[in-house]
Amino acid sequence: METMKHSGRLFVPSLPTLWPHMLLSRPKPGSLPPFSSPNVRYFYFARNAIWLTVKMLGLDSGEVLMPSYHHGVEVEALVDAGATPRFYRVGSRWDVDLDDVARRIGPKTRALYLTHYAGFPGPVAEMRKLADQHGLILIEDCALSLLSSDGAVPLGTTGDVGIFCLYKTLPVPNGGALVVNGPRQYSLPEPPAPPSTSTFSHTVSALLQNLELRGGVAGRALRSAVRAVGHGTVKAASIERVATGTQHFDRRHVDLGMSPLTKRIALSQDLESIVEQRRRNYFFLLGRLRDVSPPLFNQLPPGACPLFYPMVVQDKAEVLARLRAQGIDAIDFWKRFHPACDASEFPEVAQLRRSIVEIPCHQDLSPEVMADVAHAVREALKSDRRTKKRAG
């Protein structure tokens, strides 16, 4: 593959950026989970909430049925806490095979684990019914689906617990949450705040991304200069920076809480507006791309807050390289199975891992930027097809 350089025209980050005024905005009551939930604990990572859920509910003595389509870090957290994962079938449209789930429930099964993918609701009512029939715990993983609802029902409120990640959807430096639903109350300790230096480092990084987003070439140059100085300062001062978005569970960080700054920024967001803007951008891409790449979903369910636009491609590496060369931070979505899961048993998931690319559609991106993104994606897909024809 040819080496490509950043064209300099676009800067489209995969996650929303932190606007300076957000540091001064007043917090307001949260209208959606986890902010509206009466029984919630906040953590640095959502994976910490998974680990604590296993311990809190006594799942470390049994098996948890999990989707074969997974990131891997959630499986690592569950295994580290002492539970045994078993996997069920997920189809080519992220559809859970409920019959397969029912078949795999055995005497050692203690819980069902449902992941809501990229803001699209999974069959939570059906999973709730299955769990109740067998006396099992239902865990709702909403790490990719903050602010999403299944119609009028917010995701994360049907399961016995709901698990959320904040920094994938909101411009915050860290943050995960565990919501306990139902009448039973658990005495959960408040985890300690993370190192302030780590929070500061992530906050500055998000502000610099915003500068580049708004400032074009000049903003990019200034961001590069500041980052170079900042990296040297961090290294010289031996500042502890707990990275987010990492691929593996780290027991050293399991007791780490969410920073007060994260909560302040999160509670100052206009959550309903974020949902509206993400849906608008998703529909924009759907309308512009469906003729060149058959959409994974041809519609957006009511209440869904899309984390990204899932695009089906033939050659991930080629398309990703071309998009990144245009300044679009497209992401290779979940390409690997966790070693505990037999990939040969789930061919539909193996194909998903080979073909899904994340196209950003978050709230920072205006209709004008989305038009540029759609054009760049169309060109990348055309180039991909021309390459295939020459190779054939």
Automatic annotation (TrEMBL):
Transmembrane segments: none annotated. Keywords: Aminotransferase, Pyridoxal phosphate, Transferase. InterPro entries: DegT/StrS_aminotransferase, PyrdxlP-dep_Trfase, PyrdxlP-dep_Trfase_major, PyrdxlP-dep_Trfase_small. One of its GO terms (molecular function) is pyridoxal phosphate binding. Pfam families: DegT_DnrJ_EryC1 (PF01041). It comes from the Bacteria. The keyword Transferase applies. GO terms for biological process: polysaccharide biosynthetic process. Belongs to the DegT/DnrJ/EryC1 family. PANTHER family: DTDP-4-AMINO-4,6-DIDEOXYGALACTOSE TRANSAMINASE (PTHR30244:SF34), TRANSAMINASE (PTHR30244). This is UDP-4-amino-4-deoxy-L-arabinose--oxoglutarate aminotransferase. It comes from Pseudomyxococcus hansupus.
